Amino acid sequence: MKSYLMFFILFTTISICQSGFDEFRLFPLQNINKSYTMTPHPINMGNGTLGIVYSKGGYPDSLMFSKTMDEGETWGEPALITQFVNNYPSVSISAIRTTTGRLLLYLAKTTENSYQAETACYYSDNDGITWAEGNSHFTSPINFRNPRFSVLTDSTLIISGISGTTAGAIIKSTDDGDTWSVKTYPFRPADFCSISASEYLVLDNRGNQLKLIRSTDAGNSWDGGT
After folding, report:
1. Which of 131, 218, 111, 132 minimizes the C-alpha distance to 172?
2. How many CA atoms lie within 13 A of 196 on its CB side?
3. Which of 79, 77, 133 minimizes the C-alpha distance to 107?
4. Number of C-alpha atoms within 13 angstroms, CB side, residue 68?
5. What is the pTM (predicted TM-score) of this model?
6. Of 12, 33, 125, 207, which residue is the least packed, with the fewest Cβ within 10 Å?
7. Residue range 171-200, pLDDT digits in tens
């Protein structure tokens, strides 16, 4: 199990050393003098194109999308993903480009009670020019927060996150995000990693302790951690 843990840590550690950045560039579509409660989310579009999902207001009043094809020198015309009726104290998002080229965005809007969240899913099939609300009416976990996208080797889509105060959940799609299935588990996933289409590793952060939880049957059952 120690070898799995080492692989998991290496897999989930993001390194920017190879990029060789000469300078940092400010994102021109947000105000540098304004404080934002939602962290912008990048999407690797392929072929040297980078997309980004960001909030227009400090407290997110709308979600926008723009992309650059010249390493951030210039950015395309922003596209509206969705506009919120209410301002939410916090919005956590995860976005990804699937193997078919579809852009998928899953978001959790946190209400005044930090353990209460509303969820929604949006997609674009034309490289982010226009967006539509996806199948967000599936039976989602109660108070699902901190979503994280993963793509398995068989193109299955996984969204892992926290459900309530003591549990976690994995939302799965095998049809490019058209439909989803949901399973909840008695652990809180701090991070998710797929070894193969059927073998998953999850870092469990219950009780201020990190444990490695492993499934070898596509999430149907899990070991007790180590």
Report:
1. 218
2. 5
3. 133
4. 14
5. 0.77
6. 33
7. 889 999 888 888 777 777 667 777 888 888
